[in-house]
Known about the structure:
Helix content is 37%, strand content 10%. The protein is an alpha+beta fold. The chain has a three-stranded mixed β-sheet, covered by helices on one side. Strand 1 (72-77) and strand 2 (83-91) form a beta hairpin.
Amino acid sequence: MFYFVVIKLPPMAKKRPSHTDPDSGHIYDKIFREIMDELAFVVLARFKNYHIKGIKKLDDKLPTTTLREVDFLYEVEDETGNSFLLHIEFQGGDDMEMLYRMYEYHGILVRKYKLPIKHFVFYFGDRPSRMAKKLPEALVFKDFQLIDFKSIDYRQLLSSNSGAEVVLTILSDFQGRPAEAVIRMVLQRLRQLSDNEQELKSWFAKLTILSRLRKLELV
């Protein structure tokens, strides 16, 4: 089976659906996330050698804590001229979640002010506090690993025997080759790997969505 491909290039192409439809961007994001849900483990296995044995889908709607819940917050300067945030929480009783609350505050404050922070809890309880004060090393955020698709040679993915990896070719570095040529090679490779027309259609649908991240549209 053959697909005719029309490739729209900037400035005609749009990364997002038309803004005349207020829901179109949301729908596009939802579909893209569904596709990446399927492909994320493929990417991690290929480029980070992460081979996952079991997964459990978690709620992606994260709770937030507003800054008005912070008891005491000032930007201060010490005797050496260094500026930092001074954050204090006042506790009348033990809170076994206090450490994680402080961790949450830390992330919010760093993002907003981008300054070092010193955190204190003033505890006024009748009994000695049993609150944990330090996160286990495995829970401390230090950095993140980056997978930059535009630095990946398209041939690495195109030559794969996995349709999931071949589809990701559309996000990689084309090494100066015209987009039209790369897309045709991707479609040809997907035809070779697909067991039936339905599977090919599924890969083509995913390729169409991912192509929008490159400001390309496959019609």
